[in-house]
Design goal:
Largest sheet: 3 strands, antiparallel
Order of helices and strands: EEEHHHEEEEHHEHHHE
Strand content: 15-25%
Radius of gyration: 17 Å
Low-confidence stretches: 2-29, 32-47
Number of helices: 8
Distance between the termini: 20 Å
Length: 247
């Protein structure tokens, strides 16, 4: 979780998939994977990729939180994709509707989270007094305890600013999540849980983060209810440009 805000101009489209949802985000966000010829030939639908990907994650115990500091992941909302806008504004533009800018097309002044994926309620974003946070789907402190403490700073900076791992959400709900993983926290909006868990699986697989046994069991439990859930992909490279540094 993070306590900063984020959003996006492209609407999040939620489609029912066997009682769960699949989100289609903007160009900077996760991409839906195409069905591979291997899965087509084997009789396994590409739609089940999220559940299958859980088995590829390493299972280990949670490491101590010792040494964790947000600064280890670089300055918040660094422009790692070099488009001239900070990550926070990139996500606000991607996820919010009716976006208005303070100047030009970078600094988002206002918009609406319609709906918030975690509560399924509309939430208004106004810069400086926002009810919207930018959530790290895989919390940074959770990542620290499951592999990121061993990384080069460039990889930690990449994770903190990767659109695949970022989502504009209701601030109060996000703060109740804290640094929870799938075993300890799920969105109150049950219709979004499959999409949410698939997002965590995708991020952990992309960055090579491990899961605890309880976390893996929780992921399997959620995704068992939506066997057609796809695994999102895309986002930024797993290393940040050399000009970025972390403490």
């Amino acid at each position: 979780m993070t306590l900063w805000t984020r959003g996006a101009g492209a609407a999040v489209m939620l489609l029912a998939v066997t009682g769960c949802t699949v989100d289609s985000t903007g160009s900077a966000g996760p991409d839906e994977p195409a069905e591979s010829s291997a899965s087509a030939g084997s009789g396994e639908s590409a739609g089940g990729a999220a559940r299958a990907a859980v088995d590829s994650l390493t299972v280990k115990g949670r490491a101590p939180k010792t040494g964790y500091d947000r600064d280890k992941f670089g300055s918040p909302w660094a422009d790692t994709d070099s488009n001239g806008c900070g990550t926070r504004d990139d996500i606000l533009k991607r996820d919010l509707k009716d976006v208005k800018f303070s100047d030009g097309d970078c600094e988002v002044r206002s918009g609406t989270l319609d709906p918030d994926p975690y509560t399924n309620k509309d939430v208004t974003f106004v810069r400086g007094r926002s009810q919207v946070d930018i959530d790290h789907v895989v919390a940074l402190s959770d990542a620290w305890q499951k592999g990121a403490q061993q990384w080069d700073p460039s990889k930690r900076i990449a994770l903190a600013n990767d659109p695949l791992n970022l989502l504009a959400v209701d601030a109060s709900t996000n703060r109740s999540k804290s640094d929870g993983d799938t075993a300890t926290w799920l969105p109150p909006n049950k219709a979004y849980r499959c999409t949410y868990v698939a997002g965590q699986v995708a991020v952990k697989k992309k960055y090579g983060l491990w899961v605890t046994a309880a976390e893996k069991a929780a992921m399997e439990g959620v995704l068992a209810g939506c066997p057609g859930q796809k695994l999102p992909s895309g986002g930024n490279p797993t290393t940040a440009p050399e000009r970025f540094h972390a403490n």
